[in-house]
Amino acid sequence: MARYTDEELKEKVHNGFIVEYPDEMTEGYKSALIVQLLVQADTELISAPAYFGAAKDAPSTNTMVSATAIIQDELAHANIAYRLLEDLGLDKEQLVYGREPHEFKHPYGFDHPLDNWAELVVANGLYDRAGITLLGDVFKNTSYGPLKRALVKVDQEETFHLRHGEMWMKRLAKAGGEAKAQIQRAVDWMFPMAVEWFGLPDDMKRHSGQLEYKLKGMTNDELRQTWMKSTVPLCEGIGVSVPAHWSDDEQKFVLDYPFPCEYDEDEKRWLFDEGEISWSKVFERWKGRGPANKKFVEAIQEGRGFRHQLEMAA
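User: That's the sequence. What structure does it adopt?
Assistant: C-alpha cells below.
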C-alpha cells in the first residue's frame, strides 16, 4: 500500500519532496513516470539506427568517429532509461526485444531515414536540441531522484551532440552551393517535425500527470517556445530560412504555416498549402508510424538473434 494518497503526494513533490523508491509512489505517479521514461528510452534507442545510416556518409575518418561516438552515447542513454524502468518492475529485455515496431514510443520524426551527412547534422542541431530542451526541463524540475542524478551525464553528452550539429550546420552553410542547399532541404522537413514533437498546444491538453506529479516543469507550449528561441536565430544566422519568426506584438515566436498540417513522408515535404488539419489526424499518423519504423526496430532486435546463435553454439 502506498504511503501517501495521490493528492498528498502531489502536494509533497510541489513542496520539494524527492521520490526515491517505488513504495513512495502512488499508482498514478508510477504510471506517469513509466510513460515518461519509456518515451525517453525508445527515443534514444531508435535514434541510433537513424544516425548510423547517415554516418556512413561522413566526409572523413574523423567525422565518422564523431558520429559513431554520438551513436554510442545514444545507446548508453537508452540503457540508462530502460534500467530505471527495471526499478519500476518492467523487463528491459521485453521492452527492447519483445515489442512489435509500432509499439515503440519514440517521436514520429525518428521513423524517417537520414539520407546524407547534412541530414545527420541537422538532426543533431534540431532533434538533439529538442531532446536537451525536454530533458533539461526534467533535470531541473523532476521529483524522481534516480532520474535527476542520471541526467547529469546524459545532458552533458547531449550538449556535445548539439554542438556537433551546430558546428557542421554553420560549416556547410558557409560552404554554399549544394552543401548549403542540403542544409536548407533538411531544415525544411525537420523544423516542423521538431515543432510537432512537443505535442498538443496547451489550450487543448486536457490533463498532464507529468506536471501534477512534478516529473517536469514546463508546458508543451513553453517547451516549444524554448526550442524556437535558440533554433530560429541559429538558422537565420547561417542564412537558412525557417517557417517561424519573432512577433513583437505577441512577445513570442510564431509559426508561418498552418499548425498542425499534413506531411508527405515519401517526399519529406510538409503540405502547408492544404491548410490546418485536426490533431486526431496527427495522432493517426503517429500511431501508423513512419516509413523506417520496422527497419530501425528490426536493426536493433537483430542482435538478440545473433546472441541466441552464440548461446546455441556454446
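The CA atoms of residues 293 and 304 lie 18 Å apart.
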